[in-house]
Amino acid sequence: MRSTFAGVTQLRAVPRVAVVIDVMRAFTTAAYALAGSAEKIVFAGTDDAALELKARHPNWLAVRDGAPAPGFDLTNSPGQIKTRDLQGRTVVMKTTAGTAGALGVAGAEVVLCASFVVAQATARHLRKLAPEHVVFVITGDNGCAEEDLACAQYIAALLTADDVDPLPFIERALHSTAAKERTEGVDEGYRGVHPDDVQLCLEVDTHAFAMTTTNEAWGMTLGIEEP
User: Fold this and answer.
1) What does the pLDDT look like over 187-202, one tens digit per residue?
2) Domains located in the chain, CATH noted
3) Sheet-wide strand order for 110-114
4) What pTM value is reported for the model?
5) Is residue 227 predicted with pLDDT exceeding 80?
6) What average pLDDT does the chain have?
7) What angle, rounded to 10 degrees, do the helices at 146-158 and 167-174 form?
8) Residue 93 to residues 7, 56, 102, 172, 206: CA-CA distances in angstroms?
9) What is the pLDDT of residue 195?
10) C-alpha dist (Å) from residue 114 to 118, 133, 155, 225
11) pLDDT in tens, 141-193
12) Cβ distance 108 to 100 under 8 Å?
């Protein structure tokens, strides 16, 4: 199984199998939402699109990057999501990197979304699919985010071995620009980040499910692929 690592803008064509990585924080947040019994996550391309979906479905919750904003119920924060009762709720998510990256490869036959918390499960699902080629889409920092690349390379290593040490990959993510910025945000009292976010984003294999997308009437939707 061959692995390629690229940002969305570096792709020359839509891949057949894509694994979209956003460690800090979209696909860590999404994993905690689904683990918290959210029914599904619907990706929106813009804030307006997210709010329009919520207006049409009043019971849905809207999530976005940044500080709390009018019309949005939650911020893109695993620490915040983890404390909310999401039983049976649909979450509309709009983020700068993660959801944008997923929407950028929506034409792929298979799109998985991943972070460290679902790494092993993602690798298991890929091994079951057994594609010849997997494209790991690095979403943060215009395709250059060290934490996303580290996670992608960890999952790629797991495709051929079960005993891969995650610590070197986690160390890279811990010292990434994104981790530093979110830690500084907590210190400065920024309301768009939770004190537990960095720690939660750097935990490995917290959840035993992969996250797969489907294209439904309201848009690209993320759900759980059980082992």
Assistant:
1) 998 888 999 999 999 9
2) 2-221 (3.90.1560.10)
3) 2-6, 133-138, 17-21, 110-114, 210-216, 219-225, 40-43, 90-94, 61-64, 74-75
4) 0.96
5) no
6) 95
7) 170
8) 20, 15, 11, 27, 21
9) 96
10) 6, 17, 9, 12
11) 999 999 999 999 999 999 999 899 999 999 999 999 999 999 999 899 888 89
12) no
Residue 130 corresponds to which amino acid?
A
CA-CA distance, 157 to 173, in Å (whole number)?
16
DSSP readout, the chain? Answer: -EEEEE-GGG-SS--SEEEEE-TTTHHHHHHHHHHTT--EEEE-SSHHHHHHHHHHSTT-EEEESSS--TT--EES-HHHHTTS--TT-EEEEE-TTHHHHHHHTTTSSEEEEE-GGGHHHHHHHHHHH--SEEEEEE-GGGGT-HHHHHHHHHHHHHTT-S----HHHHHHHHTSHHHHHHHHHHHTT-TTS-TTHHHHHT--S-SS-EEEEEEETTEEEEEEE--
